Sequence to fold (291 residues):
Amino acid sequence: MNREEIDTLLTAAEKFDQNECTGHELDNKILAMLFFEPSTRTRMSFSSAMMRLGGKVLNLGSVEASSIAKGETLSDTIRVISGYVDAIVLRHPKEGAARLANEVASVPVINGGDGTGQHPSQTLLDLFTIRKSMRIENIDVGLQGDLRYGRTVHSLADALTKYNNIRLHTIAPEGLDLPNHLKQDLTDSGTEIIMHENIEDTISELDVLYVTRLQRERFPDPTAFASFATTYRITPELLERAKPSMIVLHPLPRVDEIDPAVDRLPCAKYFQQAHYGIPVRMAMLNEVMNP
Ligand code: NCD
Fold:
């Protein structure tokens, strides 16, 4: 999506957020949910968004109960399901799975997260949340945590390059920084990336702090994971050094990287952010099935 398409979609989401809909926009439409990885928010908010527009949801269910357990390829599964529904949301452990699915599908495919690759629908709701608090222009955005395996930050960093004058501050444990190819793309697009070893070095200059969990399941070696665990944690004491207008975001699930005592502070926007998954995904579904 280009900048204009993103902004149009977020403006449409604003209407859904104000309950400006008939509830019949997607009457008689069916959305397939193909989730090959765990999910709470993405799966449930897409389903809820579909139902709120009058549509129906068809779940593949568990991989064990489907023909994938018999050795069917993703391409064949997608080709067949394309004939049953009007759009597909796919979450898959392999990077590039959604792109592949899109090539063989006869209906729109929405990437609900592809391995360590991207998570674009999350990014749209992240941008929507930022937009609720500030203009997405001339701001300092901190990306903290597992920037190597975390797909939400990959998509968010990519999307932010489309906005003017964004400075990206990365704060990652050593070895978990943004992948080199992404850093290159960001730099090529003219986005300034500033790397920090500690959050303390940059907290006072940030407008947005986007925290992520260590992607434990994606570490090739469990002992390597253990060496990273508990290396960072956002606390109320740390946030005392932040600008009063700074907001804290997190795609969730949180493990222990944000102290629950932060939840009651006005800067904590992560639960609101998760709720915005509904209007933003309503806008996405409406756009792909009712253009
Ligand atoms: C994220 C994901 O699946 O990448 N979750 C989500 O969709 N909100 C983040 C994560 O799992 O850490």
Observations:
- The pocket of N-carbamoyl-L-aspartate is lined by residues 41-42, 113, 119, 122, 151-152, 212-213, 251-252 (CB under 6 Å).
